[in-house]
Specification:
This protein is mainly alpha-helical. It has one domain. The chain is built from 4 helices and no strands. The protein has helices at residues 24-28, 30-41, 64-75, 87-99. The longest helix has 13 residues, at 87-99.
Length: 103
Amino acid sequence: MSEEWKRVPKDHFKGKKFELAPTGGVDLFWEIAEDFMQKIFEFAPGDYLITDESSLYDFIDDEIQDIYSRIQKGYDLDVSDLESANLFEIFQRIHHRKYGTPA
């Protein structure tokens, strides 16, 4: 097993509840999401989990400016004004840019 992936002890989460944030918004843009995650982060479908609350910050160790530059280059779109760097909002903008209408 690589250093990056280690098993959590079996009882580590015993008695704890987990709630996954909703995915209805990003599900509307699944084609854009798959293209974006491949183009910007080089993730294949199924190699990541995103929700309506996911942001660029969840996927970077680099400076956010590097990611903004990739988005600008890949989609001809400036998203640096989105302080939250929310992926759902970015996907909405990509959709609007591509189709000229809100989702």
